[in-house]
Design a protein that fits this description.
rod-shaped; single chain; mainly alpha; about 35% helix
Length: about 70
């Protein structure tokens, strides 16, 4: 059986990686900035609408409510 040279797999060389694409780094940086932006917005807006003690809280004397 005659086999040509291009049909053999050459395992004498180890393929060299080109590394991580630069797009992956940019996506990671944007993702980290987004995480901190959402966290900052959450901390910034967490006090909105919260007043303690609230002036409109229903205040009932529970000691007078027995039957």
């Amino acid at each position: 059986m005659i086999v040509s040279e291009d049909e053999y797999l050459d395992f004498s060389k180890v393929p060299e990686s080109r590394g991580i694409p630069s797009v992956v780094y940019w996506v990671a940086v944007i993702g980290i900035i987004g995480i901190f932006a959402v966290g900052g917005a959450t901390v910034y807006g967490s006090g909105y609408g919260h007043h303690w003690p609230a002036n409109t809280t229903l205040r009932i004397d529970l000691s007078t409510m027995h039957e």
